[in-house]
Amino acid sequence: MKAYDKVKIARHLSRPTALDYFNYCFDDFTELHGDRLFYDDGAIVGGLAKLGGRPVTLIGIQKGRDTKENLKRNFGQASPEGYRKALRLMKQAEKFGRPVICFVNTGGAYPGMGAEERGQGEAIAKNLFELSKLKTPVISIIIGEGGSGGALALAVADRVWMLENSVYAVLSPEGFASILWKDGKRAEEAAEIMKITAHDLYDLGIVEKVIDEVPGGCHENFEFTANLIKHSLEEELPQLMAMSKDELLEKRYKRYRGFGVYNE
User: How crowded is the C-beta side of 63, counted as CA atoms within 13 Å?
Assistant: First the structure.
C-alpha cells in the first residue's frame, strides 16, 4: 500500500476516536474538564479510568465524525487551553502515581489568531518540557494523524506506538509539497519521501510498536484493534510501573538522546 493511501485511511471520517478507545479498552472512565485558566477545549479529552483494576489517566485528541461534531471538536485541532488541560491531568497523574496513556489524532495544533494570542507555542513547549521529566510512566498511541507539535505535545513518552494505518510527521504531505515544490497536488509523491507511515517509523526506531488493523482500516473492525491495544497496555504498563522514578526518567532521556545527531 502506498504511503498516501495510509494517509487517507488515517483521515477517514469513520475511524475510531480517542473516546471510542477510552470507553472500550478501559473501565469506569470519568471525564475531567477545563484548564482552570480560560475554558474547556473540546479537541482535548481526558480523565480517569481503570485498566485491569489499575487507575490510569487518559488524554486524547478528539476528532468528530460529522460537521456538527467537528465544529465542537475544532476538527481535532487543539488550542492552548487544550494543551494546558492535558498538562493539568498529567501533573495530577504524577501526584497520585497514575500512568498516563495518550491517544493522538490531529493534523496539528489550531493555527488561529486567538490561539496564537493566548500562547499556543508556549503551551506546546511547556508540555514537551514537563513530559520529558514527568515522574510517572507515559505511553502515547498514534491512532490516526500525528501532525507536528500538536501531536508531539502528547507524545514525549516512554513508549510511542502507532496503529498500522496511522501517520506521524512534522507536517502534512500537502504542506510538504506546497513548501518544497510549490504544488500541493504532489502530496502523494511527498508522502513517499517523508517516511511517515507506522512501519517506516518503526524501522527508523522512532516508535516501539506497530499495532495491526484489518484490511481497509480499523473502522472496518474496531474491536480487533482495540483488543490489541488493551492487551499491549496490560503487558507494558506493569513493566514501566516496576521501574524506579530515576530509572524511568533515565531511560526516557536516553530514548530521545538517541535520536539524530545525538546518537551515541
Answer: 22
